[in-house]
Amino acid sequence: MRLAAVPATRLQARCDLCRAARRDKRWIHGQGSLANPSRGEVRLRTSRIASIAIPRRSFRHAALTTTSLGDETLDAIARAALDAGEIALGFFRPGERTTAEVSHKDGGSPVTEADILVDRFLERRLAPLFPQAGWLSEETVDSADRLSKELVLVVDPIDGTRGFASGHAVWAIAVALVREGRPIVGVVHAPALKETYAAVLGGGARLNGKAISVSSRSALTQGAKVAAPVRLAEELRRAGIAFDLQPRLPSLALRITNVARGALDAGFASENAHDWDIAAADLILQEAGGRLATLDGCAITYNRADTRHGVLVAAPKEIQRQVSAAARRAPGLSAG
After folding, report:
1. Could you tell me how many helices (H) and strands (E) the chain has, helices first?
2. Percent of the chain, pLDDT > 70?
3. Nearest-CA neighbor of 130 among 169, 89, 76?
């Protein structure tokens, strides 16, 4: 599948998605704020937004069924992610603070108005295409209804919000279609990097239309490129694994896709990554010849009641086995 380039011409529409958000019963718009009443932690002033960039291209895919999943489904999701990227780019300033309003959730993680607008846009675009699917997104109130669905759309509107807000280019829009607990379509689009990773189950993985594959390394040794939280890196070294620790990437999805394209030999995630952080990248890595798993080698199941996961490792399969053996030797490493 070749992804079409997003046209440069955009239609400036007056706060179209804010109006949609007001109509959505899960969100309220009042006193100049966009708030999630069920969580009570997000307050975003939106009154100053005069307009947002909406791509001009129309989109006319019919609703997709379980019998038509494949390249057409991947194309539909990829185009939605590309268009969502245009919205987010309207708020992004390289090397500078975002123009979007920034608030904080309980626990301190940031959320911007761009996160909310991209989330609303993707739901409006994708939900009609997959009427039989549930919806799970970082910025939408969760519903137990998804647990009974065979198909679930799993979305992170902006993975790497801290980086996005501070002007770091390593952030992404991640969308996965999950069937019976495992992703079957995945797209990770990094607008500021002009990188779009895409995969469909059994169809290989691609970056900007070109096939990608994991590193040819069979083991982590000196010179291997690894991205990991500092504490995990220290424990791995205590377990006898040698590697060169790489600079931290703000986006976990892009950390995993960098393993998928061979730029990293392995990538690690600390506890409490959520489904939306990893589902799309998981499939891309799998189709590139790698594996995302727990430290004890177990595959990940998505669309559970609890969307959080323990410590994870993304790597070629041979390195996965090495890390699992090291985890058994290192008491400081938790398999989550």
Report:
1. 8, 21
2. 77
3. 76
Instruction: Give 109-162 pLDDT, tens digit per residue.
Output: 899 999 999 999 999 999 999 999 999 999 999 999 999 999 999 999 999 999
Domain edges within the chain: 10-203, 225-329
DSSP per-residue codes, 217-267 = -SS--TT-EEE--HHHHHHHHHTT---EEPPPPS-HHHHHHHHHTTS-SEE
Secondary structure of 69-131 in the HEC alphabet?
Answer: CCHHHHHHHHHHHHHHHHHHHCCCCCCCCCCCCEEECCCCCEEEHHHHHHHHHHHHHHCCCCC
Would you call 318 helix, strand, or coil by DSSP?
A: helix
Distance CA 225, CA 333 (A): 20
* pTM of the entire predicted model: 0.82
Spatial distance between the Cα atoms of 99 and 119, rounded to a whole number of angstroms: 18
Cα-Cα-Cα-Cα dihedral sign, residues 309, 313, 315, 319? negative
Right CATH number for 10-203 from 3.30.559.10, 3.90.550.10, 3.30.540.10, 3.10.450.50?
3.30.540.10
Burial label for 23, CB within 10 Å (0-12, 13-18, 19+), is: exposed
Residues 6+ apart with CB under 8 A from 106: 39, 40, 41
- Which is it for strands 28-30 and 10-13: parallel, antiparallel or unpaired? unpaired
Neighbours of 57 (CB within 10 A): 15
